[in-house]
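FORM 12-B: Structure-to-Sequence Request
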């Protein structure tokens, strides 16, 4: 579709597409029904080097760009949104270490992250603090030998399946977002507890947990960045993560388009295939427009990220457009399927449940719009124009 996909990226995509078609897609419905974590498939992705797409080659990664990472997110989510969400969660934790780990931390952890031998989750959200991260209540108190962490986190993806967890805690409660510090906490640390997987509407194969920290102790070397810099770290990493979510949403929307087109081509009504009916043609064209616009936003944001440009606006727009478009695309695809799209045996039914989360996590659609509006105001005040 996109001219930016050079021969190397096309070869990358074709290899991954073949793998997903043969090994991921056939078992997706069964994994969803049993809320089965796709551990074996994660290992296979690791064997293909896909756990370290953007990790530099010196640390054992592929040393590629975010555009390629977006391509991978699309293909995996096309086959199974749950696996795609687990995959994106890995990059959320990994990017924190890649961007903000010290040289010693990068040398120690990036090789394992690149091979999948070491996994890191991202623990920011709390029962009373979602998008408003300045309200987090988890505390970290400094002592002569390190830090002691206490508090609760929720909706933490891949927490029990990870080896380490990036935990954001208040070290200066009176400073709001500037009082947050990021810590790398081993998941076998004493005082760290996990709930059973939270029952969810969709992406059931990706497990999310409530996490409790009861006097968890870590050394001074466990901090990522400077004390008080955790809020900035969280926001910077989430800027990139929103592009990943856009790619996941686009992958699901692409699958919905293919399913709707195939069904409309084979389902016969009024003496011919559904696709001959003008009402169905309009729905199919709408889905196509939704898919293409979502993908263009995601690839544009990824290209800006690859040039080390500010992606706050582009990332929020990509996440907003792709997630909202995905929901509309899947809804129209279900409409084309009629009653068959509403039954549990239908793949569209699973996509309908899976796609709803994209409008919520890594910042709701409303938060993305507020972010864009604030950035527009700043651009206008600074330059007198926003384009």
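FORM 12-B RESPONSE
SEQUENCE OUT:
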């Amino acid at each position: 579709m996109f001219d930016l996909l050079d021969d190397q990226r096309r070869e990358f995509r074709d290899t991954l597409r073949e793998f997903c078609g043969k090994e991921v897609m056939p078992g997706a419905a069964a994994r969803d029904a049993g809320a089965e974590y796709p551990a074996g498939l994660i290992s296979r992705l690791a064997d293909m080097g896909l756990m370290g797409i953007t990790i530099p080659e010196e640390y054992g990664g592929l040393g590629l760009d975010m555009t390629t990472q977006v391509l991978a997110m699309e293909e995996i989510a096309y086959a199974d949104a749950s696996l795609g969400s687990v995959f994106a969660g890995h990059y959320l934790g990994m990017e924190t270490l890649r961007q903000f780990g010290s040289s010693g931390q990068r040398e120690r952890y990036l090789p394992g992250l690149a091979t999948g031998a070491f996994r890191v989750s991202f623990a920011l959200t709390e029962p009373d603090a979602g998008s408003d991260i300045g309200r987090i209540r988890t505390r970290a108190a400094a002592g002569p030998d390190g830090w002691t962490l206490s508090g609760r986190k929720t909706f933490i993806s891949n927490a029990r399946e990870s080896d380490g967890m990036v935990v954001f805690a208040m070290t200066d409660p009176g400073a709001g977002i500037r009082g947050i510090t990021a810590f790398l906490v081993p998941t076998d640390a004493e005082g760290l507890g996990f709930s059973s997987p939270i029952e969810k509407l969709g992406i059931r194969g990706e497990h999310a947990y409530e996490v409790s920290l009861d006097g968890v102790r870590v050394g001074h070397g466990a901090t990522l960045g400077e004390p008080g810099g955790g809020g900035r770290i969280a926001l910077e990493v989430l800027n990139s993560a929103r592009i990943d979510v856009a790619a996941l949403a686009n992958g699901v929307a692409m699958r919905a388009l293919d399913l709707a087109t195939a069904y409309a081509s084979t389902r016969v009504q009024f003496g011919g295939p559904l696709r001959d009916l003008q009402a169905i043609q309009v729905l199919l064209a709408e889905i196509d427009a939704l898919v293409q616009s979502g993908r263009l936003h995601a690839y544009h944001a990824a290209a800006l990220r690859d040039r080390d440009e500010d992606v706050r606006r582009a990332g929020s727009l990509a996440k907003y457009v792709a997630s909202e478009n995905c929901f509309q695309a899947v809804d129209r695809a279900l409409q084309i399927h009629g009653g068959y799209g509403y039954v549990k045996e239908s793949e569209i039914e699973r996509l309908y449940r899976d796609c709803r989360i994209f409008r919520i996590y890594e910042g709701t659609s409303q938060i993305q719009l507020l972010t864009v509006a604030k950035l527009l105001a700043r651009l206008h005040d600074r330059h007198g124009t926003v384009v």
